[in-house]
Amino acid sequence: MTVASDAALLLDHLDSIGVHGEVRVEKGWDHMGANLADAALQHRQDYEKVVRKRARALKEAWPDAKTTSGFLECLATDDLAAVIDWRGPDRLQQIKDMAAVLKDHQVEEAGDLREALEDPARRHGLRAALDAVRYVGPKTLDYFDILAGLSIGVAVDSRLLTITEAAGITSSGYDYVASAIRAAADTRGWRHGDLDAALWAYVGDRPAKPKGMRRRAVGSC
Questions:
Q1: Alpha helices, DSSP H only, in 85-191?
Q2: I want to staple 34 with a disulfide (CB 3.0 to 4.6 A). Which of 4, 55, 138, 169 is the partner?
């Protein structure tokens, strides 16, 4: 099978279940602290019940964390774990480490994040630096595209794999599945991120893990 043929399989399946990607979907926050919390906590969590409310709580508690520098200053004087009601040290450290990377790459505000990811030269360096952070994997890297509002954002997780498997796509490799979803969107003239959102919403927050799903590494997301 090829990406093109699997994209056709996916579109046939989407037509059969009534899923389309023509509705424009905007995600992300105008607050870098909230974006960082969202990116770190989304792995295998119920978005509405777990992630969104914590990102919102951080935004409300730390208005100065709208910028990356402001977020780092808040970290130095307040307790992030208490603000977002999260005790797991791994994700808390991931948030801090990603903030340091954004600071190093002159990403201060949400608009800066979008500009950095749209610039091919800056994009490569920023993604490479984020990829070096523990617990950051390909999904989190692509999830930053979604948070930045880029049309290319496709973050493959178990929700999307549930649909691609049902469509008859046998590969569960991250890059391959992402390419098939993007090709399907291109065929219909949809933005990649809008189709990603439609697939994610269709499956919901509690999908079953599809057979054959392969992860990049234990703990990566």
A1: 89-104, 110-118, 120-131, 138-147, 158-166, 174-188
A2: 55
Q: How far apart are CA 166 and CA 190, in angstroms?
A: 21
pTM: 0.87
Q: What is the pLDDT of residues 64-118, one digit of tens each?
A: 999 999 999 999 999 999 999 999 999 999 999 999 999 999 999 999 999 999 9
Q: Where are the domains of the chain?
A: 3-25+154-203, 32-147
Alpha carbons 103 and 159: distance in angstroms, whole number:
32
Residue 45 to residue 123: CA distance in whole angstroms? 27
- Taking a C-beta distance cutoff of 8 angstroms, is the pair 11, 164 a contact? no
Structure tokens at 101: 């990377």
Tokens of 88: 């797991």
Whole-Å CA distances, 186 to 28, 157, 179: 23, 20, 10
